[in-house]
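Fold this sequence, please.
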Amino acid sequence: MSGQYVGGWHGRVQVWHGSNMNSASAATFLDHAQVILGERGLTRDAELMEPWLTDWRGRYHGTAIALASPATTSQVAALVALCARHRVPIVPQGGNSGMSGGATPDASGTALLLSLRRMDSFRQWDEDERQVVCEAGVVLQTLHEAAAQRALRFPLTLGGRGSATIGGLISTNAGGTQVLRHGTMRAQVLGLEAVLPDGSVLDSLAALKKDNRGFDLKQLLIGSEGTLGIVTAATLSLEPQITGRRVVFAGVASVQQAWLLLLLARDRMGAALEGFEIIPRLALESVLGYEPASRDPLTGPHQWYVLIELVSHDPDTATLAEQTTALLEAALGQGLVEDATIAANETQAEALWALRDGISSAERAHGPAVQHDISVPPSSMPGFIDEASATLEERFDGTRAVAFGHLGDGNVHFHLRAPAGATAGEWEEREGKAISAAVHDLVTRWGGSISAEHGIGQMKRDELARLADPATLTILRGVKQALDPLGIMNPGKLVPLASSPQAA
């Protein structure tokens, strides 16, 4: 059914027939879109569109009728209303750094790719309230730098901060390395502006601490991956700039030892503990081989490594240094740490974090792998990694499990490397579904989630349908049907199709 989106709730089906537009009606639509967006706002040039038609992993590729780049919320609203009239599906896209194919159109060539990268303004700063209103196209790193100029910071970061946009982060409810202390993107959003599927604008930017006027609509849109509306701006919470920072890189014998170290750090450091990442030796070796300038921070190899971020807002930075040293002495005394180093300055601290941030690129360059973004209760993570690694390596001969990431919040990236000599693309296609199903079955049995911070997109949509409880699926489909009855908002993503739809 190329070019058709079939959705449904309790047997109802919404079919989009945009692929049946004749050339004249398509030309009329594009002409009207050009008028709305202006000369810079719409391109049909295949060469200019090409970089945005493939996801970051290179796994999904599609085509589009055009690439729209609105500069204002009013342009987005007018464009969405036009798409609704012509039944043209919309695929919103931020920095195109997603991991689940959520911002990639299908192959029908009938969807409009909507980029918000031109909407990159800071509308308002409130330094007293520690808030900023910024548009969806603002890049995360740009926000970090602008906040720092005001002695403030935005407490969410991730490896793709140089390309990820605020709109994309909100739409996927992104996490990152500071969730342990500050929570996901959902916790950072105080207000939201969004264009709904009919072209109307939801203006909920006011950061009210108390508001009991029914449903919290902004929370409904956060994490919806563009299937319910298009985020155009947000009011975000900021934190005071830190005055002290200590970054620790430690070698440990096992994930269980890492977990015990986390408990010790949490008890001793309290709110100063901001990040706690685990890295297996295999992943570190990949980074060392991929990045020529990188080096092993410790003198000898260890099975696992822990990267700890400790921060302070106290002008007395010596206190944080003393507390960090005392933490490591206690960890060594209890046999939790085999070796460790503390970054002596910001350059060394960033070099240690570069080892962690470089894992995804290094693993991709290493060769074929099936990758998973999963979570389980943090206390269960050591047992899950041990069981999942052993089970999958035994079942899929020649594979190697690589688990790394945010132990503190129970989220790791679980990769299964292909056997030596496997051909990229072919092996993932042949073994991928069975591997992912096995991983997701284990995650579900351990009480976890098949998507922790990268969204469902198109990659995990069918697995969500297979594993989610019926009540959850009913609600997802019901909300989608209510807000997007035409089925034009990012079709085929996140919301699983009804199991046996009957044509209306």
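The chain has four domains: 6-117+464-483, 122-240, 244-359, 367-461. The radius of gyration is 23 Å.
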